[in-house]
């Protein structure tokens, strides 16, 4: 693989289309997989038997029976468990979750990215179609629906979330990841086509507006409890089962380059096979794996939300 730095989003997608590992994307996929594994027995049993919802107030970690199901699920996932990646980009998420036992499918806006993904033997049999999420409606036919680093590129993000939600089965899960912290917005975001970065409160309000029949109160301000959850009274359609930040180290690196040094981040570390860069990737990989074990920190470069459809 070439060690040239990415110039924009498209060059990055092409760069990674033939890869099986990427420091950021693979570790993010692992983190998300750990999160959904914690809730998966609940989500999937609900998706197949919507009338048999388990009490969401019971923590999966505290429920021995659920832990036993979780262990079985993580080693032998049902072959009919479906996963949709909207904005599949370079295909790394599709390859990761396919390897984890999901029946995967994807939508992607750019035909060139689809052509690159189709060249990969691992994705040869995977359904990947060209589509714009703002013009796309689903039929509630996927257990898991993910849009990773997608909605920040879309002007009408509420419409995008609403359309993502239409693909989720009752009892299934919608996962959204976005660039975190509006105060970090800068030249890199503009260059990569971001309309915004998200504060946690704002993203949860957008989700509330997209999937809840109850309109926001005046001024767009929603009166919620700390770490907003979509309660039964406020949202009959969905419940936030996790909201967390990820990539603690990346937060400080990004802030240093974007807001202090005012210099572009050198992407060569991500790809170069020099001893220094391989050592750095190895160290960062271990830090991200530790973050995965912890389950999330109150600060990070990426914001992740999982919403279960009732």
Structure overview:
It is a single chain. By secondary structure, the protein is α/β, with parallel strands linked by helices. The protein has a single domain, classed as 3-Layer(aba) Sandwich (Rossmann fold). It is 41% helix and 16% strand. It contains 11 helices and 7 strands. The protein has helices at residues 9-16, 23-48, 64-75, 92-99, 111-118, 157-165, 187-191, 200-211, 248-261, 268-271, 275-294; strands spanning 82-86, 103-108, 127-130, 142-148, 168-179, 238-246, 302-309. It has a 7-stranded mixed sheet with strand order 3-2-1-4-5-7-6, with helices on both faces. β2, α5 and β3 form a beta-alpha-beta unit. α2 packs across α4 (92-99), α2 (23-48) runs parallel beside α11 (275-294) and α6 crosses α8 (200-211).
Secondary structure layout plus pairing:
Elements lengths: L8 H8 L6 H26 L15 H12 L6 E5 L5 H8 L3 E6 L2 H8 L8 E4 L11 E7 L8 H9 L2 E12 L7 H5 L8 H12 L26 E9 L1 H14 L6 H4 L3 H20 L7 E8 L1
Parallel strand pairs: 1-2, 1-4, 2-3, 4-5
Antiparallel strand pairs: 5-7, 6-7
